[in-house]
Every structure is written in C-alpha cells, then in structure tokens.
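Annual report, structural modelling task.

Input specification for the zinc ion complex:
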Amino acid sequence: MSDLRQPAGPDLHAIFGIDGAPEKVADPMISAHSGSADVGLEGGSENGFESYGEVGEGLGTTLESGAEVELEVERAADDDWEEEADAAEQPVEPSPTGHEPGWSGITRPSRRGSSSRFLTDVIIAMQLATARQVEDAIETSRSSGSPPERILLDQGAITHDGLARALAERYGLDHLDLGVFQVDMSAANLVSTTIAKRYQAVPVAFADKRTLLVAMADPSNVLAVDDIAIMTGHEVRVAVAPPDDITALISRLDRLEDVVGNSTEEQQAEEDAEVVALHESDEDAPVIKLVNQIVAQAVERGASDIHFAPDGKETRVRFRIDGVLQDITTVPRRMAAGAVSRVKIMAELDIAEKRLPQDGRIGLVVDGRHVDLRVVTLPSVHGEGIVMRVLDKSNVVVDMEKLGMADHERERFEHSCQETHGAVLVTGPTGSGKSTTLYAALQMLNTPEKNIITVEDPVEYEMAGLTQVQVSNKTGLTFATGLRAMVRADPDIIMVGEIRDKETAQIAIESALTGHLVLSTLHTNDAPSAITRLIEMGVEPFLVASALECVVAQRLARMLCPSCKRRMIIPAKVLQDSGYKAVMELEAYEPVGCRRCGGSGYRGRVGLYEVMKISPEIQTMALERRPAEVMRDLAVSQGMVRLRDDGLNKVRMGRTSMAEIARVIGTN
Ligand SMILES: [Zn+2]
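The model returned the following structure:
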C-alpha cells in the first residue's frame, strides 16, 4: 500500500470498484494486502468472502458444479469483432449499477432517520440475537467496559454483517452487501485509499449528480462524513457495510491501482515495441488512472468488450460480460474527451481525427496476463465513442469434452474433424463461441505429424505447433490471399477464421475437395442454412454437397448460478408459447441472484449445439437447391438435435433457464 501524496483538491488516486464477484475477493493478492490494513479481519468468513473455488477466469469449470462443464468466459473467442460495434447496443437486462432503482445488494431501512432506539434493542427486534444474549452482553459490558455489541461479536452471538444491518436500521440508513453491490469506480476515485482506510469509508456510487453513496463501517463517524463531503465536493449519503467488507474493498482498490502499470514495466524489456507504457508523466494522471482502472476491471471481470459511449453529456462505460452489456460507470464530461484521447494514444491512432472511424490495437499486460485490445473509434452525433474488444492471450483452450456438447453430438463432430479431407463449418452469430469450438477441435487434432495452418482475424489463441497467420488490412493479406498461400504450403489441416466472401468460400471448398481438412466459420442461424448460404455466395451446389462433412450451429447461454438457482415449474402453456410441442409442465430452475453471481443469477456460459452430418440424402437436396427448412426436417429425421431442443435439454438439466434460451435463440 503506497503512501499517497495528498494534493489540495480531490485526489483521483487510483481506487477501484469491487465487482460483485466474491471469488475475486478471495484472490491471494488481496489476502496478502489485507493483513496490513488498519482494520482487523476477525471473523471474516461470515461475509461470504471465504475462499471459493475458482479464482482464475477464462475457460474452465467451477469446482462447485462438480462434473458440470462450462464455458466460463468466451471473451477471446469471438469472430469478426468489427460487428460487435454495431451489434453492441442492446443490453438485455437493466444494469445493476447506475441509477438508484437498479442497484442491487442494497437493503433499505424500515424507516429513514435515526430511530433513537438503543442498538441492542434493534438487535433483539431484528432477531439477530436473543433477548437473553443481549441482556447478558449488557451485563458483561458494565464490568468489561466494551460496548455490548462488541461483546456479542466476540461471543459469536452476532456476525459483523448482522451488526452492520442493525446499525443501518438503528440510524435509518441503507445496508450494503458489497459482495453484490457494483461499485462505481468514478465514485470510488474521488477519495484516496489513505482516506478510505482512515475512515473505513468508500464512495461506491453516485446517488444523484450531487450526492455520493458512501459505504461506511461506522455511520456515527460524523467527522468522516464531513471530511469526505469537503474533499469530494459532494453531498454524502451514508450506507452501512461490515468493516471486513470495506477493508477487502479498499485492499482491492489498492491492489488494482498498480496491476496494469507494474506488470507492464516487467514486460517492457520483452515486448518493447508492442506494449504501451502505462506509466506516463503526471500531467494526465487522473485520466490515465481512470482508463487503466477501467481496462484492469474489464480484464478482471472477464469482459469481452469495453464500450465508451458518449450520450452528449457524459460518457457511459459498459462491459460485455457473458454476452450481456452492463453499465459500469460514467465518465464525467470534463474527463470524457481525455479518456477517449488516452485510449487513442495507447492504440497509436490519430488523436486529431475525430470524424472518421479508426481502428488499432493495444498490447498490454494486466496482472501478469497478456491482453490484446482491439480498438475501434466510433464518431457519433454525441461525440466520439470507443469499443475495445478484449483478447486475453492467456486464455486456455477448452477440451472438446468441456464445450458442453451432448455425447452423441460430440462424437459426430469429432468424427468429422478426423476425416483427412472435407469441410467442417461452425455457424452462429458474433459472440456465439464459434472460435472456441474450432480451437478445441484444433487442439484435439494438433499432433506433430499433421501440418496445421490457420489464417485468422485476429489470432485469438496462440497454439504451439500451428502456423498461424493474421489477416491484415494494411498489407492486403485477406482471408482469400492468406488461404491461397496456405494451400501451397502443404498443409493437412487448414483453419480459416471466417468465410465471408465468395473468393474465400470458393478456395475453402476447393481445398476441402483436394485432400485437406478445412475448418471454418460462417454467419448463419442454423446448420442447414450453411449449405444455402454457400450456394448463395456463388459456390456450385455439387461442390458444396461433396465438400461439406459436417456443420455445427451454436449459441452461448448463460449458466444458472448453482449457488442460488431456484426450482420452479414451467407450465405447458409457456413451453407451447416458446414453440415446443409440450403437453406437460416441466420442472426446471430459474435465476435468483446472490453475491456469488453478482446478483445476476447466472455464472459462466454453456454452449448450445446443433450438429448436422451431411448425409447422402442431404447432399441430394443441396444439389437440388432445396430450402434450408426442408433440409432441416430431413436432418432432424436423421437424428439431428435442433439448437432449441439442445437448449431445452440444458434447461431440464438445470444448467440454464428458459429465459436464456429465449434470449439466445428466440422463440421460433
Ligand atoms: Zn448466485
């Protein structure tokens, strides 16, 4: 924990938001720090910060879900990221942060304002301890000199969180569950960590333009409230949180202050040209810190995209997490232009050019992890916005078994991938996990006796043993030219990031017919449409029919949080309305929301799949240019499980919800 200079104005020292994902709070680095904090951590576990399965993120399984497999985060595994910028502005759920009605993790008092009751009476009234325990504690306090609530704590009769709830009720204030509440880093930034520690108080949100919501362990510390009001120039609305939660939050803020910079320095020698130095002169310090914090938080939370969206007054910062956009913070107008310029400088873009879109990349190391940001600027009527796609190079490639494919489907897919020639296509919209599936296949096929070449945009995972080529607009290396060159390099297996034009389609199909296994992706909603799409692109139907081995359509659905999901009954009517031929109700689960899932009710994602083997009958239909629906019905009769049915299976297994299936597939 560094000693901070304390300038006259509000110190925008790097303070950072807790993210509502308690497993992150269990990070060993946090534990190391919290030992030096002012406040003791006695009895820390009742706040749910006890160590909990998975600290790392990326692709993996949770310990808790046992045999359950999942795609935890798919951030690096998307396809054409440019489309993200267009497709991005559709939040599916209201954000937990931002304006007051959307806050989660906050408990209102039964009445506002101090109730002039004794705290001990409130503890009894709230049934946090029995009247007998409280009377004994009052008795003991007379002789020992410590207050009764302290004695109750020491005896283990009440928890720190229980006491915080009682304090909130006693003073008529809100209680905050910092494990769930999403801290706004622009607010947290207004107070230095030194001050935060001294007062055990952290601003966690803007209640309105003039008022900060400040989490405090001791709401009766009037001096602290006054000081924070003067320092920040805001009114202060106090909310109560347990001291260990506040200590954990401050430690986190403190740690995150340094992660981006320090790690970058270490890496500087290695990647001098590539990695942008994040330590710069102090002139723009507040803006630089804010941008660094936003990026660090995005990586920590496993966000796939970071959006800076100006609305004419301020700039909203949003993260896409598990495929869903969430409001994270608001950058005030006076800093917004600086923040955008800062990102442009990091991406080596022309900061004077504000009217035309530009794109670039930033390579950096966040907390020891190599992260690539693909940056695009979006001039809008409200000012210049930015979308950054986060490509975490340290992401682990998942095994085939962990994709979440049903056994039968997986066997068919694996079998097709083991052919010596032919094309295997994975289809779905942007962000549906297509690349993850292809990388899993490549990993399975990656043996020394196979020459595997890829052409990708961008290279998302670097895999040992492969020759990976990155598409580049600057040098004119397109999928088509890259592919043409690859074919001459004697490959056994070719992976083309995406087929999006006739030329690429043509070469890919021809390669598949001339002794190569070709893996690629296409943008279609279901598997049979891949055939009609290729024909529409201008590839001869007989080439498509003879080259295609297998088409997989897929989506990613958020998985229900195993800690809080709730058993429920889906009436047959609802199933029918969703397009299923159901006569009976279905027992399944619905999302609830707890501190482990940040209140969303979901944690991680699972793939939904539709695997279509190209049978002789389907080949004939392709030759006859039959519509996709006709081929679909035939494929289903030959054993293909449709995406929506795989979705329903995963609802029945309790892994996801009907609402998620409707969200990612629709109700047709
Ligand atoms: Zn939960």
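Residues 545 and 620 are 8 Å apart (CA to CA).
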